[in-house]
Write a sequence for this structure.
């Protein structure tokens, strides 16, 4: 069980990246959903001991993470959002290097680990190639392989599927779901489907704050019957935005399909639709925006739709 | 569009840190060079600090340093967009390639020029500083600064800018561009070494892209007056160089323009899977768990060090650096010890010394460069988040990297060692001493560089950017050099500093490694502290700011790190204290400025005593107890003092050498009067006074010893094997002598001393009272006993009376059978001896011997034959040889000279013992040096001149002349031509750095370039014109009148008087020009042509221009009418070229040449190829290269 308590982080330039974040994360996959700049990566880095938060506490089992970062690291696997590689270094050598760093230093253990992981992530056939020449998907699979070295009990995966094609994304998510049975896996993403597919529990982070947490099913259930959809001409869109709480717009066959949040039927054009996790996410974002606009007063301009 | 891009680039550059750091560095460096006496560029001696010469040279040299700024600025503009990822956006706009490249090039060059403009600005500001010596500042002339910046700096910037712009465009890599810059610098310095011989001047001037060689060649013969007033003309070689390189730059820019494409050509292609091979069966079950035990730590250390080392070894930059280093080291080793065009046997010591000079920069670059690379690698490659989140302990980030650098440095040094061995093989020398390479070169190089690497890592951990870290290291290096030359010389605060370990084949490292080892330990301990701090401050995680890491320092400094750091600190402090005890308490630590202060004090306090009448030493008995292994010499002895002043003497002054300790001094009737402990000087009162003609005996005992080790140069005169002392180092002198006081005018002004301290002029007859070799005595009866270790041979001037060994000590007693100069040598070493005899009819035999280091047999036979030839010739031409023996004794290479004592010639192992005698086209250096030293048995040991101007004419110039006679007898006139060409070049070059004033030869004041180089030229031409026998007769008469006589001593006027009487009035003007004036000729063959005649012969026509100049002491010249005979020669090969022989000379005769243009007609039998006036460069011609022309 990972418990985060009142975690706050303020960067030296005054940016408040995390604002009193508290979360309880049980074993299994945990999805952390949020738009760009919501503070997901800051949270991930604090959990990965790469950044010391301004205030708050993090505990993993009986480890006080902030006081004993080294103890956590011994049982941590971390796949950063964006990572590079050394030039002219093969997948095998790099994985071996990281295994050594993680304390799997004996020759036999090292070999066993590297062999097993390269097969698990299906990179065995390219093990001698320089990682610098890998495609995005191969690189992410390498990333998860290194995160798995040494059987970690906490795995942090920061936006792993951004930029992957659907097939690679699938392959990657299958890998994740395999490992997310017994250990704590935190998956941060802005792709709702990843969470839908993989995570029994999730939280939504906006502006450095946790605005919603629970199982996907619970969150969807709360929205059931409140999502309405209509198909409009492009020039009707502005009017609709003024009249309704639009959570999402999408083009379909040249017409604009909008989804709005309303307790009852907003108008005859709209038909009720089944809510999905995406609606939960967009509705949450909308509420946050409305709240922020109300706080900022009349001066706040209109924000662009997500 | 172009203008817009240019302006944008200019503004962008002016905001970048590179610009500001560069501008600050350049300003400070030039300001330092202008205002600190000890770091002068181009303004030595009488040349003003703001002279046009100094300004141009400073800007020229700084533009070499500007290379790195230029690469960052100009090449950075090409790569910037790719690195920031902005390129696709920019390049898809309507922006044209021409405006894009051109605008950026112009904008960034303009910014770089502004950086370089800091140099003239700093010189202008620096010369206005109130503490400047007003005599070293000329009038402010804005044109000089603008000329330097725009005529010299700007073209270099454009050329270099275009070249690296092109390289950056082609490689799209900053690293490769920097590698290119380093390669250029190394090749630049290599070609300067390679082409330093004067026949390569033109080639060297052309191939130097900075134009410095061309500048040096153009101005090398400039005198102080010219340097203070003239700007180098943009013509001839300089213009050719600038044009050549501008064309190269334009071509490179054109190539870059062609190569540059907005589109990416080679996008990365994702790796394709190799053919699937048999995968090991997939395992089930958990993976191995990480561990944190000792075995893991050891395995981690090894594996990570191997990985980090692989990162270095696999980077192409490393191989480029290594390749450059090997080329540089190889060239340095190949050309080491070259002297008058002859090369030595490549013994390991010479190779090591060459590597220390030519290769040491590579370990420094590697330490600094890879210090930065390895610290920042994970961040630069964006691997740090992965790596920092691993459980690796903090040390695992630092220690393997330092270990990897250490191994890389070792490998690099071993490659240098192999380079040295390769040079030995190529030179046909097969005696390998790998252990000597390892101990003398590899080990100290690796230790020093590793300390530097740790400092580099530490700095990189502190600073927020790799480039800033490198900049800090550069500043550190420059600051170390600047500080040490400004008087901050102690190795206790000069990072990784330590005393040099003088090397010698006779002695290896001797005891000198001990001090160096203590300093190595001291700095290694300090580096350990730095490493522990770097470990505790290591960036882990995403925040890089220093402040939170400093705050966390106490928390991270725990356990093993703290123990290690504490041990390091304790060792550092402990060894520091021990070193301080050795360098500052057992020895005296005195910086160069403090030495000058002391000399100034000596002059103020003691110079008034110079004219006091003192008793003269007439007999010396001394016993030197040498303890070679203890670096100690205890001397006891007695002087017979005689009052020859003609008046009663009531005080005696005694002076002794700086390191010497005067234990006992007893003189009947003497009581100490005043002691000057800092100056090693003491006055005694005599009661009763010494009456004229009275003699008394002075007894003394002294100790010369080195205790512990000093900070600076150790006492190399007493060593395990090859001790060599002279009397001034071990016995007291009587009375005050001005020898060794400050002579540099600038220093004298700084200390408030009168402008000049010069020897008495020729007109000052009181100067004839003392001789130039020994101020305290005239000719003395000598009796010298030397005791040393039993396995060594003790030697001193005189015939051996006894030689006994008892109790492990060997004692030899020497006594000449006639009075000699009070100028003794004492030597002791484990010698091998080769003896011979000079037998002549009707004359007593002379015993000859060479005492040498076993293994240095190469030239011993040549030395003996040269001794024979010289003794025979001089005995016949001048006067009989006064001794029955002559010995040459090798001494260690701590100094490079040979010196003549009475029948005893100490001879450095580096001047002749290792010279490789080449074919007939090589100058036989061994015979030349030997003949010169044998000649001193006459010029110095028969005739000893007065302590006046012109003294060294009678000693050194005559010895040069005598040696030339021997060489001419043995090798013919062709060798003379080669030799004199070197002498002419060295004379003309040295004139410009004169610190006092250039004097005519007859008034030379111990100025080597005048008494050696000009002396050779003047005496040889005199002989050519008036005939050898007449010159020799004049010299013989001089000996007849003055040899072995006490005061009044002879001076140069006596010689000129005898010479004039001998040669007659028709040569009066010639003698005046050669000896009493500074005369320069400028003869040029503008054109030479040949036409066949009807009778098959050829008409040769020479168009000649000539003039004669008289220079004053500062080099200011006035023309004077010329009408003198000159050698005219017509040849079928170029004089000095490989194919030139006696058969090549078709016509050779003397004809008068006058001022101005003239035409000479000659007839020769065959078709000539070359013709010229003074073709063998016997005259002092300001431009000796245009004397011979190709015949058309």
């Amino acid at each position: 069980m990972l418990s985060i308590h009142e975690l706050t982080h303020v960067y030296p330039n005054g940016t408040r990246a995390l604002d009193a974040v508290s979360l309880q994360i049980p074993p299994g996959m945990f999805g952390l959903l949020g738009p760009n700049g919501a503070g997901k990566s800051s949270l991930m880095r604090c959990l990965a001991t790469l950044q010391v938060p301004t205030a708050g506490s993090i505990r993993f089992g009986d480890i006080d993470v902030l006081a004993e970062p080294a103890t956590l690291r011994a049982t941590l696997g971390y796949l950063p959002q964006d990572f590079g590689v050394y030039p002219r270094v093969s997948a095998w050598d790099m994985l071996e290097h990281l295994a050594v760093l993680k304390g799997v230093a004996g020759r036999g253990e090292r070999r066993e680990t590297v062999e097993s992981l390269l097969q698990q992530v299906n990179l065995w056939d390219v093990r001698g190639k320089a990682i610098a020449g890998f495609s995005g998907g191969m690189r992410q699979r390498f990333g998860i392989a290194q995160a798995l070295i040494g059987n970690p009990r906490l795995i942090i995966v920061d936006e792993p599927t951004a930029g992957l094609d659907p097939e690679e994304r699938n392959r990657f998510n299958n890998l994740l779901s395999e490992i997310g049975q017994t250990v704590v896996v935190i998956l941060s993403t802005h792709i709702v489907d990843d969470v839908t597919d993989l995570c029994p529990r999730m939280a939504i982070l906006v502006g450095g704050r946790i605005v919603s947490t629970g199982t996907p099913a619970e969150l969807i259930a709360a929205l059931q019957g409140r999502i309405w959809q209509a198909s409009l001409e492009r020039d009707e869109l502005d009017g609709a935005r003024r009249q309704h709480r639009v959570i999402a717009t999408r083009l379909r066959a040249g017409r604009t399909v909008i989804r709005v949040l309303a307790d009852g039927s907003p108008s005859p054009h709209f038909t009720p639709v089944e809510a999905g996790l995406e609606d939960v996410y967009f509705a949450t974002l909308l509420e946050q925006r409305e709240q922020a606009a109300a706080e900022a007063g009349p001066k706040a301009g209109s924000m662009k739709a997500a | 569009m172009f203008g817009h891009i240019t302006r944008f680039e200019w503004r962008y550059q002016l905001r970048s840190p590179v610009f500001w750091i560069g501008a600050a560095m350049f300003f400070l460096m030039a300001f330092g060079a202008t205002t600190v006496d000890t770091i002068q560029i181009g303004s030595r001696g009488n040349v003003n600090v703001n002279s046009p010469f100094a300004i141009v040279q400073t800007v020229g040299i700084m533009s070499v340093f500007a290379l790195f700024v230029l690469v960052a600025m100009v090449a950075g503009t090409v790569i910037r967009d790719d690195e920031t990822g902005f390129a696709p956006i920019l390049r898809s706009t309507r922006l044209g390639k021409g405006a894009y490249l051109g605008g950026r090039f112009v904008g960034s060059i303009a910014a770089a020029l502004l950086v370089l403009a800091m140099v003239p600005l700093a010189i202008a500001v620096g010369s206005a500083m109130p503490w400047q010596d007003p005599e070293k500042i000329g009038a402010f002339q804005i044109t000089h600064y603008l000329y330097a910046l725009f005529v010299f700096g700007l073209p270099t910037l454009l050329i270099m800018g275009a070249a690296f712009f092109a390289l950056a465009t082609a490689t799209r890599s900053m690293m490769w561009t920097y590698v290119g810059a380093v390669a250029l610098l190394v090749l630049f310095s290599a070609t300067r070494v390679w082409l330093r011989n004067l026949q390569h001047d033109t080639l060297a001037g052309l191939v130097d892209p900075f134009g410095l060689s061309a500048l040096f060649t153009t101005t090398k013969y400039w005198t102080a007056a010219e340097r203070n007033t003239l700007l180098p003309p943009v013509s001839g070689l300089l213009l050719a160089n600038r044009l050549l390189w501008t064309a190269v730059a334009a071509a490179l820019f054109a190539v870059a323009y062609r190569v540059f494409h907005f589109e990416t050509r080679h996008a990365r292609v994702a790796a394709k899977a190799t053919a699937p091979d048999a995968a090991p069966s997939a395992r089930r079950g958990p993976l191995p768990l990480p561990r944190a035990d000792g075995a893991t730590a050891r395995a981690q250390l090894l594996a990570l060090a191997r990985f980090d080392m692989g990162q270095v070894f696999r980077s192409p930059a490393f191989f480029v650096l290594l390749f450059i280093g090997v080329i540089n080291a190889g060239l340095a080793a190949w050309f080491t010890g070259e002297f008058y065009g002859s090369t030595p046997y490549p013994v390991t010591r010479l190779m090591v010394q060459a590597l220390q000079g030519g290769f040491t920069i590579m370990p420094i670059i590697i330490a600094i460069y890879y210090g930065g690379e390895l610290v920042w690698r994970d961040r630069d490659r964006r691997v740090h988040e992965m790596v920092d989140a691993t459980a690796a302990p903090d040390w695992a980030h630092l220690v393997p990297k330092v270990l990897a650098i250490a191994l890389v440095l070792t490998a690099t040094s071993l490659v240098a060692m192999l380079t040295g061995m390769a040079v030995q093989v190529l030179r046909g020398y097969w005696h390998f001493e790998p252990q000597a390479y390892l101990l003398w070169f590899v080990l100290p190089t690796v230790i020093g560089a590793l300390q530097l690497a740790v400092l580099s890592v530490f700095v990189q951990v502190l600073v927020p950017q790799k480039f800033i870290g490198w900049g800090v290291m550069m500043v550190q290096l420059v600051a170390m050099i600047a500080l040490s030359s400004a008087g901050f010389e102690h190795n206790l605060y000069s990072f990784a500093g330590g005393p040099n370990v003088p090397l010698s084949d006779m002695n290896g490292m001797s005891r000198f490694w001990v001090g160096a080892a203590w300093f190595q330990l001291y700095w290694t301990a300090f580096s350990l502290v730095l490493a522990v701090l770097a470990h505790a401050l290591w960036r882990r995680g995403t925040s890089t700011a220093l402040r939170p890491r400093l705050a966390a320092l106490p928390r991270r400094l725990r356990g093993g790190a703290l123990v290690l750091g504490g041990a390091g600190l304790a060792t550092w402090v402990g060894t520091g204290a021990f070193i301080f005890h050795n360098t500052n308490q057992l020895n005296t630590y005195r910086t160069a400025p403090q030495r000058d202060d002391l000399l100034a004090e000596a002059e103020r306090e003691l110079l008034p005593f110079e004219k006091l009448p003192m008793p003269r030493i007439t007999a010396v008995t001394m016993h030197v107890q040498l303890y070679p292994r203890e670096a100690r010499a205890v001397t006891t002895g007695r002087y017979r003092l005689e009052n020859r002043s003609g008046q009663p003497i009531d005080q005696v002054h005694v002076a002794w050498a700086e390191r010497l300790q005067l234990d006992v001094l007893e003189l009947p009737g003497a009581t100490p009067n005043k002691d000057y402990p800092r100056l090693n000087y003491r006055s005694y009162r005599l009661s009763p006074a010494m009456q004229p003609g009275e003699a008394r005996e002075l007894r003394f005992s002294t100790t010369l010893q080195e205790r512990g080790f000093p900070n600076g140069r150790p006492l190399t005169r007493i060593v395990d094997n090859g001790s060599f002392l002279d009397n001034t180092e071990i016995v007291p002198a009587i009375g005050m002598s001005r020898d060794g006081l400050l002579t540099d005018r600038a220093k004298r002004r700084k200390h408030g001393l009168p402008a000049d301290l010069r020897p008495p002029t020729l007109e000052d007859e009181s100067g004839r009272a003392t001789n130039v070799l020994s101020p305290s005595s005239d000719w003395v009866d000598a009796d010298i006993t030397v005791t040393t270790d039993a396995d060594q041979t003790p030697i001193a001037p005189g015939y051996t009376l006894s030689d006994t060994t008892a109790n492990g000590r060997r004692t030899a007693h020497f006594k000449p059978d006639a009075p000699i100069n009070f100028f003794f040598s004492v030597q002791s070493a484990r010698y091998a001896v080769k003896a011979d005899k000079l037998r002549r009819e009707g004359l007593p035999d002379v015993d000859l011997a060479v005492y040498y280091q076993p293994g240095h047999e190469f030239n011993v036979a040549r030395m003996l034959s040269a001794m024979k030839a010289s003794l025979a010739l001089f005995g016949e031409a001048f006067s009989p040889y006064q001794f029955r023996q002559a010995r040459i004794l090798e001494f260690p290479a701590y100094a490079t000279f040979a010196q003549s004592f009475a029948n005893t010639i100490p001879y450095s192992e580096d001047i002749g013992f290792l010279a490789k005698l080449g074919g007939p086209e090589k100058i036989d250096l061994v015979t030349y040096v030997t003949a010169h030293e044998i000649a001193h048995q006459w010029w110095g040991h028969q005739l000893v001149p007065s302590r006046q101007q012109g003294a060294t004419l009678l000693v050194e110039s005559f010895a040069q002349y005598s040696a030339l006679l021997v060489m001419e007898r043995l090798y013919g006139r062709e060798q003379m031509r080669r030799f004199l060409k070197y002498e002419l070049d060295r004379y003309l070059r040295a004139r410009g750095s004169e610190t006092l004033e250039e004097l005519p030869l007859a008034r030379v004041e111990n100025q080597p370039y005048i008494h050696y180089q000009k002396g050779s030229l003047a005496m040889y031409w005199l002989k050519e014109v008036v005939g050898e026998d007449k010159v020799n007769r004049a010299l013989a008469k001089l000996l007849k009148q003055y040899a072995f006589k006490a005061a009044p001593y002879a001076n140069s006027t006596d010689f000129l008087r005898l010479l004039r009487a001998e040669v007659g009035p028709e040569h009066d003007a010639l003698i005046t020009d050669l000896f009493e004036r500074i005369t320069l000729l400028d003869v040029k063959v503008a054109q030479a042509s040949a036409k066949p005649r009807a009778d098959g012969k050829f008409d040769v026509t020479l168009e000649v221009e000539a003039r004669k100049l008289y220079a004053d002491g500062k080099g200011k010249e006035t023309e004077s009418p010329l009408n003198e005979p000159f050698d005219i020669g017509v040849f079928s090969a170029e004089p000095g070229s490989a194919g030139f022989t006696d058969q090549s000379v078709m016509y050779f005769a003397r004809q008068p040449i006058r001022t101005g243009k003239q035409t000479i007609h000659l007839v020769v039998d065959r078709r000539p190829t070359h013709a010229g006036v003074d073709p063998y460069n016997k005259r002092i011609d300001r431009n000796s290269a245009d004397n011979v022309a190709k015949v058309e």
About this structure: The first strand of chain B starts at residue 616 and ends at 627. Chain B touches chain A through 51 residues (CB under 8 Å).
